[in-house]
Amino acid sequence: MTARILVSDSLDEEGLNILKGSGLPVDEKVDLSEDQLCEIIGDYDCLIIRSGTKVTKKVIDAGKKLKVIGRAGVGVDNVDIPYATEKGILIMNTPAANIISAAEHSCAMLMSLARNIPFAHESMHKGEWKRSKYTGVELNGKVLGIVGVGRVGGEVAKRMRSFNMTLIGYDPYLPKEVADEVGVRLTTFEEVIQNADFMTIHTPLLPETKNMISMPQFKMMKPCVRIANVARGGIVNEDDLYTALKEKVIAGAAFDVWCNEPLLESDMKLLELDNLVTTPHLGASTAEAQERVAIEVAVAAVKYMKDGIITNAINAPRGKMDPETEAFVPLAERMGILAHQINGSNPVDGLEITYCGELAKKQTKMLTVSVVIGLLRNIIGPHNANIINALPVAKQKGIAIKESSTERSDDYANMIEVKVSSKEKKTTIRGTVFGEQPRLVGYNDFTFDAPMSGDMVFVSYKDSPGIIGAVGTVFGNNNINIAQMSVGRYNKDALMVLTVDQNVSAGVLGKIAEVTGTSDVKYADLVND
Fold first, then answer.
1. CA distances from 472 to 461, 482, 500, 516 (A)
2. d(C-alpha 320, C-alpha 255), whole Å
3. What is the DSSP letter of 93?
4. Could you say which of 190, 261, 424, 436 is catalytic?
5. In this structure, are strands 276-278 and 252-255 parallel, antiparallel, or unpaired?
6. Is 131 among the residues known to form the active site?
7. How far is residue 227 from each of residues 7, 116, 156, 268, measured CA to CA in Å?
């Protein structure tokens, strides 16, 4: 039976022409409610969406034939990715198609804010002529602080240099050499917010970036600072933004992205401010970007539906892998996540992966890519690295990747060793698979056996009686259940590895450090998106 494609959001004509020219049946049905989509999705093998369609668990359950979801754009917040993956549905996006448009929109927002263009425009359309009221400021000679000097931030830097701005940036995962190429001097987050006359944000929304700019940061800024956000809503605390603008703690802001899209009634107070420039998430809304994302997602969908060729995959496919290595994919990705989290916030410059035992004889390229995907997860966002772009993105970040094999594996038939290095630190972890379950069996000099799942806590301490009980008491007093615990020892040192059932706060980690007399307490979350 011929596969069918449903387009449930408006798509550029060029993309539609590619889909319709594929010989596959294509239907366009936009502005559907969840119930309406559920009524018809069972007839389709491929769903093409933008940001309007919400692909919920209910929709996925109704899509009995659904094999692929194609997102014409970058963000996939509107798709239940874990559940789609569980159901074996491939999810694709277009991660690079809107970089230039987002960068240009950021520049436009900064310039509109500097020269009060939206407010002067509105005033003139009221029949007013108030030149002095809308006196602006020049960009020339000012300091531009860029938070997140990645692909979009780098393009912004290239353009704003032409205005004779001094560029400083904060990006803990970007090597100095890469920033130097675009003329940005990397420094601390504190220096950026303290010294910038203008700021622009280009980070993914992660647990560590949520509300990273709130009232304490606003109070550290110059009163003349103007800040633009064309990245993601939630990076800046909107309640604190309102107060900072209302009380003139900062001079102005220009926002394209919001916590709630569209805005709720409770958000409307922001629109009353006379120093806030607003747009309704237009960063990728150019004719060129919309054409590129439509073409890219259409080509990718047709290739997959007709030839089984996978491009721009968000969730790593398993179907065509070597069955003998397939069981190691979850292990490899979790090892990448874990290695990055316990190595700390220093920029990673090296990644060495060694395949031991029987794995040394297998095709391991997909495993290497899976480790890199995990490593990049907390650097560029949980869904922005995939099997297509993981290695190029790692190279762009200045991460040197080395892969090696050895048939020697003293304790296990198969084992993966991952070494992550930065200028300040090196971390080594070792893992294997027992009965399809990923297991962590080594960390630096320590050997043990622990399941790799959920929330994990690592406590390094001087081996002495009573430590295990003290740590257990801290967790018990905070209603955190310990699912499993393992201990490794090396000389007079010990490492306690715990798997727990809940997230562990910084306060609890601090209490563990206090009772164990160590500062080496680390927390890792292997599943939270």
1. 15, 8, 11, 11
2. 43
3. -
4. 261
5. parallel
6. no
7. 37, 13, 14, 19
3-class DSSP state for residue 107? helix
Residue 115 annotated among the catalytic residues of the structure: no
The number of residues in the chain equals 529
- E strand or H helix at 430: strand 426-434
Q: Which of 151, 232, 340, 439 is catalytic?
A: 232
Distance CA 373, CA 334 (A): 9
Measured CA to CA, the distance from residue 174 to residue 153 in angstroms comes to: 11
Per-residue pLDDT of the chain (529 residues; tens, 9 = 90+): 689 999 999 999 999 999 999 999 999 999 999 999 999 999 999 999 998 899 999 999 999 999 999 999 887 878 998 888 778 788 999 988 889 999 999 999 999 999 999 999 999 999 999 999 999 999 999 999 999 998 899 999 999 999 999 999 999 888 889 899 999 999 999 999 999 999 999 998 888 899 999 999 999 999 999 999 999 999 999 999 999 999 999 999 999 999 998 899 999 999 999 999 999 999 989 999 999 999 999 999 999 999 888 888 877 544 445 667 888 999 999 999 999 988 877 788 899 999 999 898 888 888 999 999 999 988 888 767 777 678 878 888 889 999 999 988 778 889 999 999 988 789 999 999 988 889 999 999 999 999 998 899 999 999 999 999 999 999 999 999 999 999 999 988 999 999 999 889 999 999 999 999 988 899 998 875 4
> Which segments of 265-413 are extended strands (E)?
276-278, 350-357, 400-406
- The residue from 151, 226, 281, 340 that is catalytic is 281
For residues 190 and 200, is the Cβ–Cβ distance under 8 A? no
Side chain identity at residue 178, one-letter code: V
Asked if 281 is an active-site residue, the reply is: yes
- Burial zone of 396 (CB within 10 Å; 0-12 exposed, 13-18 middle, 19+ buried): middle
Within 21-64, where are the H helices? 34-40, 57-62
Sign of the CA dihedral 449, 452, 457, 459?
A: positive
The number of helix segments (H) and strand segments (E) in the chain equals 18, 22
Cα separation, 496 vs 452, whole angstroms: 14
H helices within 10-79, ranges in order?
13-20, 34-40, 57-62
**H-assigned helices in 266-364:** 287-307, 323-326, 329-343
Residue 122's identity, in one-letter code, is E
**Residue 389 CB: number of other CB atoms within 10 A?**
21
- The DSSP symbol for 72 reads S
Task: Tell me the C-alpha to C-alpha distance, in Å, between residue 162 and each of 108, 141, 147, 256, 447.
Answer: 14, 11, 19, 23, 55
0.85 cut: is pTM over it?
no
